[in-house]
Amino acid sequence: MSTTIEAPRSPYARAPRKRGVNWEKWGWIYMRVSGVVLVVLIFGHLFVNLWLGEGVSALNFAFVAGKLTNPFWMTWDVLMLWLALIHGGNGMRTLVNDYATKPLIRGILKWAIFASVAVLIILGTLVVFTFDPCPAGQPADLLPSFCSAL
């Protein structure tokens, strides 16, 4: 006796692709790999910022400025930013594919997700790499105390 299982319901039907890159497979793999790497990056970030040294009371402008002058922490923060934003954007894309039934709305939502992720990645990367806690030509009373020696 054989039982036939019906095809799963889908909000829209697409013809299966015969050749080319399987973007859904690579998106699925990216979510798993980036999730594991993000766990390490986030817990490392929390460990250094909250548990080492003086704890949360030490978090101030000088602490952040000191971290953002170190190339290791700049790379760490940018990697965390990029992975988190792309991971979240890919998750939102999956939700849109699952629940948006009209092709036009689905396309608009996916482009909006892509645009917002791209803008946030560009702005976040610019902030990390162009951050200057002691800008030249500013009045000394407006600068942090650690800039007075410069």
TrEMBL record:
Signal peptide span: none
Entry superkingdom: Bacteria
Residues spanning the membrane: 29-52, 72-90, 111-131
GO molecular function: metal ion binding
Main location: membrane
GO cellular component: membrane
Pfam families linked to this entry: Sdh_cyt
InterPro entries attached to this UniProt entry: SQR/QFR_C/D (IPR034804), SuccDH_FuR_B_TM-su (IPR000701)
UniProt keyword annotations, A-Z: Heme, Iron, Membrane, Metal-binding, Transmembrane, Transmembrane helix
Localisation: Membrane
Protein name stated in the entry: Succinate dehydrogenase / fumarate reductase membrane anchor subunit
Protein's organism: Cryobacterium psychrotolerans
